[in-house]
Amino acid sequence: MTAETSIAFLGTGLMGSPMAKRLLAAGFPVTTWNRSSEKALALVEYGAAFATSPVEAVAEADVVFVMLSDGPAVTDLLFSQGVAEALSISTVVIDASSIPRDTAIEHARALEALGIGHIDAPVSGGVVGAMAGALAIMAGGDKAVIASLSRVFAPLGRVTYVGPTGSGQLAKMANQQIVAITIAAVAEAMILVEAGGGSRKAFREAIRGGFAESRILEIHGGRMVDRDFTPGGLSRLQLKDLNTVRDTSSSLALELPTTELVRSLFEKFVKNGGGEADHSALLLHLEALNQNR
């Protein structure tokens, strides 16, 4: 793949928009489509072509990125809205959405029957990582095809081949386990320190560089100190991913008690109206649990 590779980007929301900007800045011709057209139109000033439908967007694409909210949305886009039929045989679909492993496998098989390539390549790093081109990209599928896409992935971050189709989604689900559990751990630690008369800010600075250091402590811990929960990763999407982990672990006859506990905390937080807040805002739910103690 070269910089002349034509790219269609379907889904230009919180993550898709900065990813598309990175591809445009690298010199790739990019056509954008989003269900809410204003989000795709906003990329025209950065050099993108705007499509009024996903079928129009993929008409001349060599590579199609999909960044949607869940599995049913991706299935609908590809197979109900006519995208799969509109793709050329040489096209490769890169699904960067976070969806169940089995759904990714079904999509790959259906596209393969049409002579179309498919890579499941979900990402981690949030909006900050997307803007900086520092995403962790977990790619599952044909190893040779993934290698051939290295120039396409390069502006977005670091791509790692993790195994056959569906493996990228498994890696992303495991990533989401770690993210959610660590967010809960940092939030509870801050509540403990403050309840005993300490400073959350000073506590965070004191443990930086020690064994508790992490990107979660750096970024989400900072949000908890500043109480700025402007979404970089929505709590309702964190819950969606944790529900996928639950379903996948059940199908594999696994018991993951820590993940299930944190999943239930996010479920209650989202049910109580926190779904559109950043996932670091789980702090608010944990604070509420301790208000009357």
Task: Give an account of the 3D structure.
The protein has 15 helices and 9 strands. A 6-stranded parallel β-sheet has the order 3-2-1-4-5-6, with helices on both faces. The protein has a 3-stranded mixed β-sheet with strand order 7-8-9. The mean pLDDT is 95. By secondary structure, it is α/β, with parallel strands linked by helices. The chain folds into 2 domains: 157 residues, Rossmann fold (3-Layer(aba) Sandwich); 121 residues, Orthogonal Bundle (N-(1-d-carboxylethyl)-l-norvaline Dehydrogenase, domain 2).
What's this, in brief?
53% of the residues lie in helices and 13% in strands. It has 15 helices and 9 strands. The strands form 2 sheets. A 6-stranded parallel sheet has the order 3-2-1-4-5-6, sandwiched between helices. A 3-stranded mixed sheet has the order 7-8-9.
